[in-house]
Amino acid sequence: MVKLVDFRTASTPITELLDDVPAAQRVHWFPETYARAKTGMVYPPHRLADKVLDPELLKNLRENPSKKTGFILAAGNTHFAGIFSMPRESQLTYQYKMLPLTLTQVYAGRVAQSCGATDYVVTDSSACASGLKVLMDVQTLINHYGFTRVVVLAVEDAVSNLVLEFFGEAKASLTLKREETEGIVPSAFDSKNGSFYVGQGAVFAVFEADHTDAPAKARVLGAYTASEPCNNPLGQLDSGLGFVRAAQGAIELASITDKDIRIVKTHGTGTVSNNISERAALKELLPKGFIATSYKPVIGHTMGASGLLETCLLTAGMRAGVIPAIPNRTEVDTMYLSDPQPRPDGLMLTLAAGMGNVYSAAVLSVEG
């Protein structure tokens, strides 16, 4: 069995309007990560990762090595997005002078050395499912290959010209134009409000085999990744088949039944397609009922980091005894929560989806 023994997160509920980017929109971001980027000597994704690379935790991992340790960078892509130039200049435009370091696997090797995780180093690029998808890899390494510790850094270059233009033009992220014409704000599973702002976020998490001495904050009972037969690699089936397959795989690995799950951390982008797909999946998966939340209306869509980052945020919330509401709901809802609820007994199901028809799920028991 796999246990989550420590983590550090970085995200912000604060938004700022960027009106000089290709599709003007609000973002959740840390402006200081772009400080001096135009000199070409500072790289924003690395600055963002620094927010969770706690020097004391890194030192502790180096000085207390485990028998067999791996490192996974959940980056969503093989190349961070910000290096690609756009037709017009914006405050996010820069030309980084050390291009080899923009390769995510090169960066992974550097971070792995800093935390003493040198038996195995790899990068995952499964789009917005990346952060959660790697739990399947963590599970495999620990349960089947004798690893005693696997360290994960999940971070993607979300607030960048390329990402904002792509998601803005696709009408996935909420642009200023849509705010003004449709009169909506970010939410999920709501009849009026929906969509998301893009957000910067990162998480650094340490997983260990259950027999180690480190106390557990949570246990990963089962993690699984699946796909679905959808002709559009950017789309989702209304039936939610991808979510269903991923969740059923995680439930089977956890050796539990749907009745054991009471709390769901949804993918929760608030787009029309995801609202339909994820609702349908959860109706099929958990017919006895559940309570669900979404973090994207709070911290934005942090892309490849989102699945694991949001799972760790909910883990912290559950340990404090609270399941947060989905912001900006316009209907009273005790399932897709319109108000915070005390933590019920039961397990957490956490879900994520990514472009290319990739779906990930994990079942966790949260300690405390």
Features:
368 residues, alpha/beta, ten-stranded mixed sheet, three-stranded mixed sheet, 10 helices, 15 strands, globular
- Label the overall shape: globular
Detail the poorly predicted runs: none
What is the H/E string?
Answer: EEEHHEHEHEHHEEEHEHEHHEEEE
Indicate the percent of residues in helices.
25-40%
- CA gyration radius, whole angstroms: 19 Å
* Average pLDDT number: 95
Give the termini separation.
Answer: 18 Å
Distinct helical segment count: 10
Q: Kindly state the number of beta strands.
A: 15
Percent strand: 15-25%
Biggest pleated sheet = 10 strands, mixed
Question: Main sheet: which strands, in order across?
Answer: 5-4-6-8-1-9-15-14-10-11
State the secondary-structure class. alpha/beta
Write a structural description.
By secondary structure, the protein is α/β, with parallel strands linked by helices. It has helices spanning 44-50, 55-63, 104-114, 130-144, 161-169, 176-182, 241-254, 272-285, 296-299, 306-319; strands spanning 2-10, 15-18, 25-28, 69-74, 120-124, 149-155, 198-199, 202-209, 218-226, 261-265, 291-293, 322-323, 341-342, 347-354, 358-366. The strands form three sheets. The protein has a ten-stranded mixed beta sheet, with helices on both faces. Strands 2-3-7 form a three-stranded mixed beta sheet, covered by helices on one side. It is globular.
